[in-house]
Amino acid sequence: LDISTRYDATMGSVRALLEHRVLQLVDRVCRDHLRIEDDLVECKSTWPAADKAARQLAAHANTAGGESILWIVGLDEDAFTAPGAADKDLAAWWPTVRSGFDQIPPELTTHLSVPVGRGRSVVALEFATDRVPFVVTKGNAPGRFERDVPWRDGTTTRSAHRQELLRILVPAARIPAVALVAATITFQHEKAKESGSGYGTEGHREHLRLSLNGQIYFESAALGSTVVLPDHTMAGRLDFDTRGKRLDPPPAAPLAVVSIGNPYRMRRESSSVEPSHPEGVEHHRGSVYISGSGKMELWGYAEMDLAYESQLRRTQRMALELGLPMAASDKQAGGAFAFHRDRRSQGPTWQCP
Fold this sequence. Notes:
353 residues; alpha+beta; 20% helix; 35% strand; eight-stranded antiparallel β-barrel
C-alpha cells in the first residue's frame, strides 16, 4: 500500500469508530432516556447561532483538559429525541464560528453525518483541544471586553478565573474511558434485624435491598501517567421507571424514584483483577490506580421502602449514573449506563449491557 492508501484506510477507521460512538450516544438518549452531556460531549437540537457558538465552543475546549470534545447537532437531550440536522449547514456555520476566535480556534478534526433512521441524520463534530487556551474576540457582541477566555461551569458559560487559567496551562491527567462489563442489579426483601452486642451485628428495619455487581473496564487515554480514583469519593445513583420512560421527579415528590435516586457510595474490593503488565489498573490502600487499561470488580447497594416493591417488580429499565472523581482534579470518570430487565431470570434482575 502507498502512503495515501494507508492514510485513507486509517481515516476510514477513525470515521467508523466515531459513527459507532455517536450511534451509541443517540441510543442512550432516545432509547434509554439517559442524559449524556458531560465535560467532553455536547448535544445541540439545532445548529446554534454562530455568534454564540464561538464562546460556547471555546469554553468547552478550555475545560476539556486537552481531551477531544464531541458536539452532536440534531440530538435533543431534554426531549430524548433526534430531530436531525442538515450537514450542508456546516459550510456556512463553521467559518463564522471560527472568525470569532483570536488567532487559533479548536481544530475541527472530523465532521460526519450519521443516519439515525426515518430519513434523519445527526451531525457529529469532533474538535481537538490540545492548543489551549482558546480566546474569543468581542466582535459585535455587547460588552466592554476585547478578548475573553471563556470557561464552562456546568451548563453555563462564563469568563475563566485566575486559578482556572492555571489549570489550562498546567498539563492535566486524561480522563479514562469507562465501560461496564456483565453488570447485574438484583433486589431482595430484607427482614428486620435487632442489634447485637458484637462487631458487625448492627440491626436494621425491614426494607428492600438493591445490589449492583459486575465488572468495570478502564481504558487509559495516555500511557506514562497515573490517574487516582479515591474510594471515598466514588458515588452512584439509580433511577428506575415503570412506564417505558424515565421518571425524574423533584426530591420532594412522594415517589419511589426519590429513594432510589439518592446517591449511594460505591466501594471496591481489593481482590480485583491484577494487571499483567506495568501499565494497568490496580487497587491499593483505598484508591484505584490507573496507568493503563484493565478490568476490576464493582459492587454497590441501595435501599428502598417496602411500599415500593410492586412498582419495582414492574420496572423494565434502570439507569445507573456513576461518578468516579479523580484525585487532585475537578474531573471525574464514569458515565450513565442503562440496565434492562432479564426475562430469563426467576427473580427481578436487570442486566448491562
